[in-house]
Amino acid sequence: MEKAEEFEELRPLLFSIAYRILGSVTEAEDAVQETWLRYEASSTPPVSAKAFLSAVVTRISINVLHSARVRREEHVGPWFPEPLLSDPYQDPERSAELADSVSMAALLLLERLTPLERAVFVLREVFEFGFPDIASAVGRSPAACRQLVVRARRHMDAGRPRFEADRREHEELALRFFDAFTEGDIDGVRELLAADVQMVADSGGKAPQWAGGFFGADHVSRVLAALVASFVRIGGIVEPHQMNGQPGAIFRDRDGKVIHTWTLDILDGQIQTIRTMSNPDKLGHVGPVADAWAVLRETRQARRDDTHTYTTT
């Protein structure tokens, strides 16, 4: 098998490793491209292309993550990973585990780990690499890697709520939720929200937060029903879509440009957290990005017009 063909066969795995370590689609794609350049330039064929390429993409990702941590500390407001529309690496026997490992909740927990802990945890717990291969990838002994995994697992387990794996049930609940709030049905929205639901947004200080920073079922339901109904009336599109292996949606303007994405955390038949990504720097891979400020102004004007019409009739 030629190098290029071999690499393309492994590309989905390499991207999936890099994305889980970095939490960025753009940076993961760059890491995979750099891995290819190094592989193409190598003169000695590796014993195992999978082990070699996985080691290279892991080392590159660890280096990138060290510098990315500095940028994240300077980030304005909450920081979320770039939304992932679909994971290119698939294993039918472990689909639920893989989906859980790429969820927003899991990626945010991974942020608690050091870059080295994060890489070792991803290789072992998500992709089930053996410790000799992990040790080769990160430049540590197998025994040291075992200790890193134990420490990382302890950090992850301490903060991880267990989300049920019934994806069909979650999808049905999400569709009911999106139908209710696009129709302005406050009661329908509220009954699907946990009492202490949170709505948080990553705008990076570069876009409006829309409905970010709200807490509690009553508050969140009223804000959503009022704002989103006006958004839909001006031609806005709410497109339900899997996001990081979870129910979510892409919000587009009337021309189909991306305004923001939503990801829903669901537990015990209720929505616990709504995470909004409106930072334009993290949406380019989803599609052409809209002028979110202009859309919000138009939405608010439509809401004022509706209110004025209601009060004068």
Task: Explain the overall architecture.
The protein is an alpha+beta fold and 313 residues long. The chain has two domains: 157 residues, Butyryl-CoA Dehydrogenase, subunit A, domain 3; 146 residues, Nuclear Transport Factor 2, Chain: A (Roll). Helices cover 55% and strands 12% of the residues. It is built from twelve helices and six strands. A six-stranded mixed sheet has the order 2-1-6-5-4-3, covered by helices on one side. The mean pLDDT is 90. This is RNA polymerase sigma-70 factor. It holds the Pfam family Sigma70_r4_2. Keywords: Sigma factor, Transcription, Transcription regulation.
Number of strands: 6
Supply the CATH architecture of the largest domain: Up-down Bundle
Low-confidence stretches: none
Spatial separation of the terminal alpha carbons: 74 Å
**Total helical elements:** 12
Pfam families: Sigma70_r2, Sigma70_r4_2
Subunit structure: Interacts transiently with the RNA polymerase catalytic core formed by RpoA, RpoB, RpoC and RpoZ (2 alpha, 1 beta, 1 beta' and 1 omega subunit) to form the RNA polymerase holoenzyme that can initiate transcription.
Protein name: RNA polymerase sigma-70 factor
Keywords: Sigma factor, Transcription, Transcription regulation
Characteristic key phrases:
Butyryl-CoA Dehydrogenase, subunit A, domain 3; 12 helices; 2 domains; Nuclear Transport Factor 2, Chain: A; 6 strands; alpha+beta; 313 residues; 6-stranded mixed sheet; 55% helix
